[in-house]
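Why Putative manganese efflux pump MntP? Reviewers of the renewal asked for a concrete example.
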Amino acid sequence: MDSNDLREMVSLLLLAGALGMDAFSVSLGLGMQKLRLKRIAIIGFVIGLFHMAMPYIGILLGQVISGRFGEWAELLGGLLLLGIGAQMFFSAFREQEEMLFQPAGFGLLLFAFTVSIDSFSAGLSLGLSQSKTLFVIAAFGVMSILLTWLGLLIGRKVRGFFGRYSELLGGSILAGFGLFTMFG
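Here is what the prediction returned.
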């Protein structure tokens, strides 16, 4: 392995960490819901799978799709996060009602898709630069799984400190991250 390959791998690992940080940030908010450890493990794996599939699709389509599509995908992802965060925030005021968003089934798939949008955009640009596809996919997946678990577990602990207000804080984090995704 020459120095250019090593530099490329280090750069890709840093990119994987940066892209996994959105999963970490959003997982902090989600972790403030009442989640069991088994659910936390499943959420981490599903987000990891999406962080592997989305850049792979992006890499495959990188030669075909223009940069404009990536901007629209980020806007859509930001809107979805904002909506989920707002719903979580306002549901904290209604004790007896069940949340519309649950991190299971379709809700989990939608959530994982939303936090993986930027991986798709990164995959588009990596597809243009002919990066090492297998390494990219593995790095993105592993990093996002680990950071998602970390965020969920920290959020779970913080929930105990904040009690009933944890949903307000969690919803605010998700909505804020959605706004940051759209405008930041």
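The helical segments are 3-30, 37-61, 67-91, 105-128, 133-162, 166-183. This is the kind of structural detail the renewal will allow us to pursue systematically.
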